Amino acid sequence: MMVAMPTGKQPAKPFTPRDFQLVLLRRMADHNPGPVEDARRELGASVAQMREANRRWQAMLHSPRSRSAAARYRSVLGEPESVAPRRIGDLECEARQWALPLWPDLRFEVLVADRGVVWNEWLVRAPSAPAPELRTLDDLTPWSCTVDEAARAFAPARPLQGSAPTRWGLAFTAPDREGVRHEVVAEFTWGLLQRTAVGA
Would you list the DSSP string of 168-189? Predict the structure, then answer.
């Protein structure tokens, strides 16, 4: 009779919604270490735990046995809070949204196209939450708005290539408190505003 010998390896811990929030924070830490540190403490996590969560997430993304992106989000975050059809141009897709405790007024939205292909993944305003009032440069503070909200408030806005897959940029003009208009480049991570660069 063969007896199974212990390998010394512990079974991998499940990747939880808390871990996923740490992944989002890890990307945001490059631009806003202060708010990220506060949020990390709210989750009761250390810097090392945040880095480990990000390492595990990257390993999941690049594993040859990795499940589809749509299935991965469902396995990590559970069943979506809401699922709704969405049409973007000629693209028919399904918008799946999850609540995340760190951002109660936001939802993590994944747009899933045909055959489970994920077309977009970012934070959006929760349907029941009031949209921020964006009128001047002073309103464009870190984490104050999403990509869509800034694009609508300061239309016409021009999308810019982000420096990483989870980053987006917008170029637009916005007034200061005296009403003088300035050229602005806004940077977003996971759909949430991180910083702005204001020109003359």
Answer: EEEEEEEE-TTS-EEEEEEEEE
